[in-house]
Structures are given as C-alpha cells and as structure tokens.
Amino acid sequence: MSRIVEKVKARGHPNVTARHRSTLEVTVDPELTPKGDCIVAVASNKGAASLSKRFKEAAKSVDAIIKLIIKVGGLREEVTGRGSVKLTFTHPKDMVARKSNYCCGRTIMIMADKAASDLDRKLVEQLKKPQQVEILLVVERRGA
Known about the structure:
Layout: E1 2-11, E2 23-27, E3 39-41, H1 53-59, E4 64-72, E5 75-82, E6 94-98, E7 107-109, H2 121-127, E8 132-141
Parallel strand pairs: 2-3, 6-7
Antiparallel strand pairs: 1-8, 2-6, 4-5, 4-8
C-alpha cells in the first residue's frame, strides 16, 4: 500500500456557510461571497494544478482512496472519497471534493462521504474565523 500526503495551508473566512449538499471546496482566492456555500477555506497555498505529480498520479486510479482532513481551532474532520482515471488536476485555484462521480479540472476526489453541509457545525464555526486552516490530502493505493 502506498501513501502520499499533501499539506495545504489556507485560512477561514467570515462568509463560510458550508451549506452545499454535494461538494466541498478549498480555494486560492482570498475572498469569499455568501454565495460560495461549498467553500470551507480561502487563501490556500495550492490549487488542484499545484498538487505534487506523485499525488496526482496516485489519485488517477480507481483503486485510490483519498482523504481530505481539515484541522482548525483544535478540531479535526475527515472526508473520504475515491480517485478516478478521469481526474485531471488542471485548475490553478480550486480543489473540490464531490459526492458525485463528476470530474473536471477542479475535482480532487469523487464519491466523497461528506460535502460542506455534512461537516460538524462546531468545525464550521471555526472555519468562519480568519485563522489558519490546515488541510491534509492523503491518497492511498493498494498494491502500489
């Protein structure tokens, strides 16, 4: 089993609502309007395109299990999804975890077990504060 970890730094924002029912997003953009109900962190130091080549290659497999771990304000939450050969990791600003199997340049995992609306509300309250948010992206592949 191979395991590759990407560390991402971002920050919270007062407009985080985390109400979207099918996606969860982290963005490089420093600002967020109330319409961005899937966005859980802003000012990320990475978008999908800037993830490591090793991470992207490992995630482009039906065997890949991908975890997105959010750490903020002493709280931690984990979202688990799948990889896909259809992942392209081409978007420079956004990283999106999806409950569906839809893939585009922003998608970093599909078939996720949680979207923004599923996050613990105590964690969401911490994500509303302009503090550092640590995000770990972990891809694991059996037999790799």
